[in-house]
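Data deposition worksheet. Section B asks for the primary sequence of the deposited chain exactly as it was used as input, without tags or linkers unless they were present during the calculation. Section C holds the resulting structure in token form. Section D is free text for depositor observations; keep each observation to a single sentence. Incomplete worksheets are returned to the depositor.
Section A, Depositor: J.P.
Section B:
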Amino acid sequence: MSASAVFVLDLKGKVLICRNYKGDVDMAEIDHFLPLLMTQEEEGLTCPIMSHGNVHFLWIKHTNLYLVATTNKNSNASLVYAFLYKVVEVFTEYFTELEEESIQDNFVVVYELLDELMDFGFPQTTDSKILQEYITQEGTKLEVAKTKVPTTVTNAVSWRSEGIKYKKNEVFIDVIESINLLVNANGSVMSSDIVGTVKLKTMLSGMPELRLGLNDRALFALTGRDKGKTVTMEDVKFHQCVRLSRFESDRTISFIPPDGESELMSYRINTHVKPLIWIESVIEKFSHSRVEIMVKGGKEFLMRASFGLPSVENDEMEGKPPITVNFEIPYFTVSGIQVRYMKIIEKSGYQALPWVRYITQSGDYQLRSNF
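Section C:
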């Protein structure tokens, strides 16, 4: 089961807009949400799920808004939260910024979107590209708009419209890996992992089926092949277009892609990462008014800076924040993940070009110092 109703509140708990999907929870129950939240905050404990009697509040905060779902059933909490974050994503794509003002200025469109995003408590059409085909920011009444609802809403492939045509058929694949790394003051790696995403920019005619092959260790084990470098992916998440049953049976990533840009999948690789960028730093205090900082990056870059400071002494112990590094390395992935092939199958039989790009970038990359 999912949500009974969804509310958008301001920071004072005032209901800006709401949608009652099932009618099995009194809408006045929302009045208990903010008092419950304030009580928890006073006690120093904030819980994402709060209850009043048999009514449960599942909520998130975004800018100056609370998005709250209510239910009196043992609902699938992860589904409800995924829906609330999807609502934020869709509203942001419509209004650029999701805040109290954008809700008030686009009341009709917001209500229409809430009506289409969920049906009787279950997520329905959540792809903003499809929603934008028949719910416009001009606030067209839904009764009129329904005459123009695309067939994708009722088709199994709800994320792609029919009749798409391109003069040149291409697929751009971006494999982007972010490195999360924490190094202590002694130079030892305390924690590290790699978070990766595979993003697509699809410009293909018709209704093509794509099959993506990666150097996935589980796939190679199934097929009895062990040549070359393979990668073990964890916490794999797919776009709704991917046929999960096919992936679970033979690790084939098969799908009919959304048109344009989309995130096909994400994954995590829990492995020991050798620091790509190493930084040594020394801070010397010569007096109450002069500090010299030396930062060394590898063997090629050295910065030495001397600061003249107001001669005011602070007896309190100064903090030692870690050094945060931001970088981006093209044409390279730390994990060694590779796109082995991309097959494009379409009944018209056209030829299409797949392009692959690899990028490694910093995630939460921090080095603690002992200065």
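Section D:
Confidence is low (pLDDT under 50) at residues 139-146.
The longest strand covers residues 189-203.
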